From TrEMBL:
CDD domains in the record: AKR_Tas-like
Membrane-spanning ranges: none
Record's protein name: Aldo/keto reductase
Origin superkingdom: Bacteria
Organism of provenance: Xylophilus rhododendri
Residue ranges annotated for the NADP-dependent oxidoreductase domain, each copy included: 15-344
Gene Ontology MF terms: oxidoreductase activity
UniProtKB keywords: Oxidoreductase
Amino acid sequence: MNHVTLGQSDLRVTPICLGTMTFGEQVAQAEAHQILDRAVERGINFIDTAEMYSVPTRAETYGSTETIIGHWFAAQPQRRQQVVLATKVAGPSRGMHWVREGLGMTPADIEASCNASLRRLQTDVIDLYQIHWPERHVPMFGGLYYDPSKETSQTPIHDQLQALERLVKAGKVRAIGLSNETPYGVHEFVRLAEQHGLPRVATVQNVYCLIARGLENALDETLHRLGVSLLAYSPLGFGLLTGKYDQSGTSGPDAPADGRIARFESVRKQRWGRAEAYASALRYNALARDHGLTPTQLALAFCYTKWQVASTIIGVTSLAQLDEDIDAFQVKLSGEVLAEIDKIRWVDRDYAN
């Protein structure tokens, strides 16, 4: 598997990244360590986590995913040198009092969160430290419209960058990134970094999949022109693009009990629970089968081969799922299939954006 450089950093990663938000909720520690071992054995060198994981986030499991990964490093110290480790500082808590008190994300919050992540991960340095969602009020996780009247920002982007710079200078962070960002946010982070000699963002981690291609409406140009790499998350549309919901007749409560959408009430209220997103997924899944592919193969091959994507983040709950997702890297989509994908999008647009 080839390696790609993230932005203008010195981080070299595989085009597949192992996401870990299932560790500590759907996946127990022993199984999580098996998945981590298999991923490295199969050539993946990139692991992504976050302080708020596992998901769905709650006080009882806050930090559990980082803790599980930290135990893996402690048990096999050589593993830390074999992977590029990414984690995230949560944005404004918005009711998640167990993350932090208050509404904002101050420089002190950023530094405290980083230090706590380092302890849980049992490492001296985080290779890629990302802001999980903007400190500004922006539409995300299925929100459609920007509303200036809801702005609650208390910490300017310049101050956030200065906090991240202190972490870089202290040797605790190698490179920085953003997540769930807008074109404005990326431009402003890069502009201020270049103007004031502060760390430059290397990556943006945003949703990107067959039923959520809104990134192609402006953000992809921003990333290309500014030299920032995309880390695509939810390539399987929270399971909608695997085909496992196709016979349920709904993406809501009647979905398979072991599926994420059935387990996570909050998700059903966001983009993945929309009837339109489910109907669109059905069309893509049928297209895959019409061309001798599984829905998973189609969805992952789409992300794996798009010029916009530097690395695709896969989340799994078993070794079988991991192998299936990695094997899909060998799938090449024909021009005919790609044309059919665009035909569906012309009608459906991006219902899960």
